[in-house]
């Protein structure tokens, strides 16, 4: 598609069983002025074959890039960004689902609120039993909100391309794997860009037993590192370093204990979300 309003960037890795559902949710958007740029990151399953099926079917609006080996999400998304031609960049993952109105709602906010460069939404968690949890963040995150972790859900976000360009995209360091988005927002806030969260569940993240297995201790260390960076880069109180060690503490908890509290927290958020909807 020539001159699309939105470029959707998707790093895909070992998601052959779920990729079709993810792409179909993009095809089902009420707003159609988009292009989809996928980058296959050295998968060992049939992810490439699934992506190629859609590329052949929609060659005018989809692009497939391939890494020679697994390089990680930050490198992979930067490759997508280099190909993006839209004025807004939307994220999407190969095992998730976005609701039909997601692009239209995010696009309208970016068009109307010129002071906003990052838009994200509440995000539901689902598995084979259905939607079981929800995560939300402050509507207009302040610098202080970075003390508690990333103030935006990464996968549902839509961002002005100029903001990505201003900070040169994602930083490609191993210490930032799994927290590349958190670091990205810090860089954007440091130079003056601001964001908004939509208090509505417009994106669903697949979170099952396989997802739990990916939560490795080294990623907790990475998060602690970036939390400390937020204190320095955003001029937060030195007491903020106390928050930086929280991911380490969580990381040394027995897996069964962490899984219990993680799921309980998201289930609690989901119940609160439903109460608000019913008022």
Whole-number tally of structural domains: 1
Note the beta-strand portion. Answer: 15-25%
Q: Could you say which structural class the secondary elements and strand pairing correspond to?
A: alpha/beta
Query: Which overall shape is indicated by the principal axes computed on the Cα atoms?
Result: globular
- The CATH superfamily turns out to be Spore Coat Polysaccharide Biosynthesis Protein SpsA, Chain A
Biggest beta sheet attributes: 9 strands, mixed
CA radius of gyration: 18 Å
The CATH class is identified as Alpha Beta
What's the pLDDT, averaged over the residues?
92
Give the end-to-end Cα distance, rounded to a whole number of Å. 42 Å
- The run of helices and strands is EHEHEHEEHEEEHHEHHHHH
Query: Helix fraction?
Result: 40-55%
CATH architecture: Alpha-Beta Complex
Low-confidence segments, ≥5 residues, pLDDT <50?
A: 275-279
CATH-defined topology:
Spore Coat Polysaccharide Biosynthesis Protein SpsA, Chain A
Q: What is the strand tally?
A: 9
How would you characterize this protein structure?
With 279 residues, the protein is of the alpha/beta class. Helix content is 41%, strand content 20%. It has one domain: Spore Coat Polysaccharide Biosynthesis Protein SpsA, Chain A (Alpha-Beta Complex), CATH 3.90.550. Strands 1, 2, 3, 4, 5, 6, 7, 8 and 9 form a nine-stranded mixed β-sheet that branches. It is globular. The C terminus is likely disordered.
């Amino acid at each position: 598609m020539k001159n699309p309003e939105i470029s959707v960037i998707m790093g895909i890795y070992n998601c052959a069983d779920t990729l079709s559902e993810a792409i179909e949710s993009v095809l089902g958007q009420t707003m159609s002025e988009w292009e989809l740029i996928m980058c296959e990151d050295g998968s060992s399953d049939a992810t490439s074959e699934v992506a190629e099926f859609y590329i052949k079917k929609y060659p005018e609006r989809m692009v497939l890039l391939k890494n020679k080996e697994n390089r990680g999400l930050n490198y992979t998304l930067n490759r997508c960004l280099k190909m993006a031609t839209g004025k807004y960049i939307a994220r999407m993952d190969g095992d998730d689902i976005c609701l039909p109105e997601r692009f239209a709602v995010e696009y309208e906010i970016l068009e109307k609120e010129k002071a906003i460069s990052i838009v994200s939404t509440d995000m539901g968690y689902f598995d084979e039993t259905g939607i079981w949890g929800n995560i939300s963040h402050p509507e207009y995150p302040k610098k202080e909100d970075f003390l508690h972790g990333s103030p935006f859900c990464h996968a549902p976000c839509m961002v002005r391309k100029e903001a990505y360009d201003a900070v040169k995209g994602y930083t490609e360091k191993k210490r930032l794997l799994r927290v590349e988005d958190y670091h990205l927002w810090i860089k954007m806030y440091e130079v003056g860009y601001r964001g908004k969260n939509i208090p509505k569940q417009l994106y669903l993240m697949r979170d099952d037993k396989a997802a739990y297995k990916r939560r490795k201790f080294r990623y907790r260390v990475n998060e602690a590192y970036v939390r400390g960076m937020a204190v320095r880069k955003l001029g937060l109180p030195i007491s903020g370093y106390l928050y930086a060690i929280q991911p380490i503490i969580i990381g040394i908890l027995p897996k069964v204990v962490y899984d219990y509290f993680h799921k309980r927290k998201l289930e609690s958020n989901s119940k609160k979300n439903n109460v608000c909807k019913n008022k």
